[in-house]
Amino acid sequence: MGILSWLILGLVAGYLGKMIHPGEEGGGWLMTMLLGVAGAALGGAVSTLLGLGDATGLDLWSIIIATAGSVLVLMIYYRIKGRRQA
């Protein structure tokens, strides 16, 4: 999968991840894209370890995996952010 595909997948997955797990992180489209790319990497690694496949293109399964990874990244981010404020 090329760089442009990763960026598009990241933007879509990051947007969906923010819609599923909303918060006040802001950041605009660039941070959304980075969130999605990180989510795709994390989701792909976890799903590969579980034997469910990986994020290999711009298909529905890759978007689902990347979105799940994005939600996981957001959950980790909020957990760490919450501990620092306490």
Automatic annotation (TrEMBL):
GO cellular component labels: plasma membrane
Record's keyword annotation contains Glycoprotein: no
InterPro entries associated with the record: Transgly_assoc
Cellular location(s): Cell membrane
Family of the protein in this entry: Belongs to the UPF0410 family.
Keywords: Cell membrane, Membrane, Transmembrane, Transmembrane helix
Protein name: Uncharacterized membrane protein YeaQ/YmgE, transglycosylase-associated protein family
